[in-house]
Amino acid sequence: MKMHKLILSFLLFIGVVSFSCKHYPTEFCTYPVANDSIPLLSRIAFGSCAKEDKDQPILKVIADKQPDLFIYMGDNIYANTEDMDEMKGKYALLSCKEEFQYLMASNPVIATWDDHDFGANDIGSEYSKKAESKQLFLEFWKEPANSPRWDHPGIYTSYYYGDSTHRIQIILLDMRTFRSPLKASGSEYIPDPDPSKTFLGTAQWAWLESELEQPAQIRIIATSIPFASEESGDETWSNFPLEQQKMYDLILSTQANGVLFMSGDVHYAELSQRNVPGLYPICDFTSSGITQVDPFADGNQYRLGSAIVTRNFGMIEINWSLPDPEIKMMIFNESGNEVYAHTITLSTLHF
Ligand SMILES: [Fe+2]
Hints:
alpha/beta, Purple Acid Phosphatase, chain A, domain 2, 6-stranded mixed beta sheet, 8 helices, 14 strands, globular
């Protein structure tokens, strides 16, 4: 987090210090869960960065767009604590919100985490309550008892939707449990070329390789922090350039067609596109935030068009009826108005 954001956070901290002393509910409110059978996945909504102590009217706007699926991309609450009672209380506040209950009843929802719901600002594997935080996360999001997420460290997982000719694979990465410490200069993170530094860790990388070898027409790789944006001083994959390159190399070696990155965290929305030798264009579609937005966006030479700096959510809409299906990437504001759109065809995501 850059200095101007730290100052903003400090001022906010002064304003909310009394709130941090409050008593939180001790149990989650019961919330409904929509039928998660999705025969054909065509409309995928997503968002990130939602403070549990704020109203979240955009959740109703999302639900009223009737997506087939909504993906929580992380910072779904701002836990920022090693006190598991406090973390549970913050999840409980979210669970009791009428607009959250409305969203959860309206469409299937899947989730990954980022730093604030993992445990603390910009933190990685050094967080001391990884196991406890994971337990709360999986309980809150009603992870099925037979989910492989319970069986390995971290919360990475994948989902498959549609038949063999309309198959969408959604890969939810865990960007926190295994992440090495970042390198900083002053208040800015700088690229660290140390080959021992990792985002995903050995086991998650091996799992990802096996996932990319599975058949699918479209593969959404959900990474809570941006993958393709420029080095910005904030958290992006460019903090560990060898890990970013490893991802490119993995897409190349597996010949995985249809990869599209999805991300959050940054408090604005944007679409980035990287043209890497030997690969098809690599898109990274970012939406943030549900409640948290900054008045300006970081520089990013790979951004297509302008960033959106008002509260927003993203939508990916696939027109399967065309011989070469179109993939439309849209950003909506909290009034439900489309404020950004960019369309590509599936064939452009092929080797
Ligand atoms: Fe974050």
